[in-house]
Amino acid sequence: MAHQYRFFGQKDPSGAWRLEDDEAHHAIKVLRLSGGEVIELVDGKGTVATGRLVLESKSKAALSDVSEVFTPKDPFCRCILLGALKPGDVDDLIAPIVELGADKLIIFHQADTAQYRTSDSALERWQRLVRSAVKQSKRPWNVEIKHAGSLAAALDLTKDLSHHWILLPEAKDDLLSFLPGVTTGRGVAVLIGGEKGFTQTEQDQALALGYKPVRLGPYVLRARTAAQAAAVFLGMMPRS
To answer: Which CATH number is correct for 77-235, 2.60.40.10, 3.40.830.10, 3.40.980.10, 3.40.1280.10?
Structure first.
């Protein structure tokens, strides 16, 4: 099957599918696509429209001969909470975490780390990277990314999920042993510390809220490696 470019777009009140302005610019000016080429538009809410590109102007584009496919949202959320790493490290992790199957990513500030790591400008940059990864991986639904000013705030964002795990190198149980039995409920949250792991206070805070200690294999992983490994495990879980 020939590759089809995917862009973000929306259906206007008349029922016509149009590329978002920045996406139209990318299609026309950067990729230099021609009118009539078959492309896909995704609205991030489950619908993917396939049709032929119509160049309405130098900066506007729409679709013709459209077919639509809607994918219901999986009610089971796969969430990763990650202590804020250096900005470049977080940037590099977003694409693989999204492409491997995580549905939500929460970056939280930890003690003794710079506050700018979870700034609003960082969040805006991460959101752009998420959008790019959603398109690349052909996911029909947007992946949610948030920042939290503390571990407590991050934990509060996942209290509605059904299963909670914290990655600790000294844990006795392996995460993989839990996954086959986790098929129901509202979702899972995997908590991963930053470069220095967790303080004892942070660890106690998570355990008090029901987070179960688990490990990923027999070795100590860097935060970057652990985040990607966790995304692999979560992505392997069956989807409804």
So the answer is: 3.40.1280.10
Give the strand pairing for 6-11 and 38-42. parallel
Helix intervals (H) in 148-187: 151-156, 175-178
Is the torsion defined by CA of 52, 54, 55, 61 positive or negative? negative
Domain boundaries, the chain: 6-70, 77-235
β pairing state of 47-55 and 38-42: antiparallel
Per-residue pLDDT tens for 14-69?
999 999 999 999 999 999 999 999 999 999 999 999 999 999 998 899 999 999 99
Report helix angle 120-136 to 87-100, nearest 10: 30
What's residue 230's pLDDT?
A: 94
| CA–CA distance, 80 with 214 (Å, rounded to integer) | 14
- The residue with tokens 């752009």 is 128
CATH architecture of residue range(s) 6-70: Beta Barrel (2.40)
Distance CA 16, CA 62 (A): 7
User: Does residue 25 sit in helix, strand or coil?
Assistant: helix
